[in-house]
């Protein structure tokens, strides 16, 4: 087999997977609607004008509508006070048409992120960032699970079936990805190592990984010879770098071409984890809606 073929067979198509998840969500939403007259609603709150965030929020709003759910968008100026933001969240918490609430991060510096996340009703916390959901996940209870790690887990289960007993290495320990990812892998009976910027001999740690999840935000940091042959590699990094002709290009945290020659499977950037994150946001909104109404949750969409 030549290198090109090897690369292609190793690629995990997150974009196609996400489209499947959205179809599954849309089917369930249609059923909720026809049988119970319920339409799941997702509120997205964006504070300030960050171009990348606006693209993301726009994509998400479109996909929310495409799956038959209602999207509520709240775009607030960068100068919005914390009190005003908290007042909006109180209204959304009380609104029965809103089943999911997402406050786009990062927030402007004058706003206390932890206070804002704590103000979201945990039952509507489709990002899974409220400490109540973090604690439920950490103790193996039913939670709303952060979208990016949930999407990674879905791809891993799809590729590998059971994850039991596998060595999983998570590089990065953020509250958004690394930590919840480690909890999910532990729950699926992996032996989990969490590595980070202070870890000694990161290359050697990575070489022991049957599953390698990287979420550090450093373009191409993970080299091909750090990958165990046949390993499954999930690249969470989305780094915009300068390309030729003054253009920009998206790359992950893993040196894709080199890693793809060694890995059993690997997610590309773009077209890997990113689309799955949005699909999982939609599935979390559906899950929150089902729980709010005491109705059965969709199969295969929750961790
Ligand atoms: N409360 C909160 N929850 C989030 O989930 C959240 C957030 N804040 N703040 C920003 C980050 C970023 N994020 C992305 C989701 C999808 C893509 C995505 O679909 N990326 C495409 C490429 C898109 C492009 O071309 O720019 C891909 O990887 O194929 C990217 C980034 C969610 N975030
Ligand atoms: Mg880190």
Summary, kept brief:
This is Bifunctional protein FolD. The protein is α/β, with parallel strands linked by helices and 303 residues long. The protein has helices at residues 3-10, 14-36, 51-66, 82-94, 113-118, 131-138, 147-160, 178-187, 202-207, 256-262, 273-292; strands at 41-47, 70-76, 100-103, 167-171, 191-195, 211-214, 232-235, 239-242, 248-251, 265-266.
Looking at CATH, which topology of the largest domain would you report? Rossmann fold
Number of domains: 2
What is the spatial order of strands in the main beta sheet? Answer: 5-4-6-7-10
* Low-pLDDT residue intervals, each spanning 5 or more residues: none
Ligands in the structure? 5,10-Methenyltetrahydrofolate, magnesium ion
The global form is globular
End-to-end distance, in Å? 36 Å
The helix/strand series, from N terminus to C terminus, equals HHEHEHEHHHEHEHEEEEHEH
Question: Would you mind describing this structure in some detail?
Answer:
It is a single chain. The protein has 303 residues and is α/β, with parallel strands linked by helices. The chain folds into two domains: 37-121, Leucine Dehydrogenase, chain A, domain 1 (Rossmann fold); 146-275, Rossmann fold, CATH 3.40.50. It is 43% helix and 15% strand. The protein contains eleven helices and ten strands. The protein has a five-stranded parallel sheet, with helices on both faces. The protein has a three-stranded parallel sheet with strand order 2-1-3, sandwiched between helices. The site of 5,10-Methenyltetrahydrofolate has 17 residues, from α3, β3 and α11. Keywords: Amino-acid biosynthesis, Histidine biosynthesis, Hydrolase, Methionine biosynthesis, Multifunctional enzyme, NADP, One-carbon metabolism, Oxidoreductase, Purine biosynthesis.
């Amino acid at each position: 087999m030549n290198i090109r073929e090897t690369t292609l067979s190793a690629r995990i198509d997150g974009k196609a997977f996400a489209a499947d998840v959205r179809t599954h969500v849309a089917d369930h939403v249609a059923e909720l609607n026809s049988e119970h007259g319920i339409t799941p609603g997702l509120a997205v709150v964006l504070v300030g004008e960050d171009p990348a965030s606006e693209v993301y929020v726009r994509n998400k709003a479109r996909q929310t509508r495409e799956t038959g759910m209602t999207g509520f968008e709240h775009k607030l100026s960068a100068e919005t006070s914390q009190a005003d933001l908290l007042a909006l969240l109180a209204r959304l918490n009380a609104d029965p048409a809103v089943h999911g609430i997402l406050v786009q991060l990062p927030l402007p510096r004058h706003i206390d992120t932890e206070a804002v996340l704590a103000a979201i009703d945990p039952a509507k916390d489709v990002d899974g960032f409220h400490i109540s959901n973090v604690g439920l996940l950490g103790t193996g209870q039913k939670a709303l699970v952060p979208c990016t790690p949930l999407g990674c887990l879905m791809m891993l289960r799809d590729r590998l079936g059971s994850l039991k007993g596998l060595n999983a290495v998570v590089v990065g320990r953020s509250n958004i990805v690394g930590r919840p990812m480690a909890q999910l892998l532990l729950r699926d009976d992996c032996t989990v190592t969490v590595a980070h910027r202070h870890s000694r001999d990161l290359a050697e740690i990575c070489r022991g990984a049957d599953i390698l999840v990287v979420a550090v935000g450093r373009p191409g940091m993970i080299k091909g010879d750090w990958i165990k042959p046949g390993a499954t590699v999930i690249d969470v990094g989305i780094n915009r770098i300068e390309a030729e002709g003054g253009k920009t290009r998206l790359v992950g945290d893993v040196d894709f071409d080199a890693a793809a020659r060694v890995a059993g499977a690997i997610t590309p950037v773009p077209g890997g984890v990113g689309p799955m994150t949005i699909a999982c946001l939609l599935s979390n909104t559906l899950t929150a809606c089902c729980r709010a109404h005491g109705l059965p949750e969709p199969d295969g969409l929750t961790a």
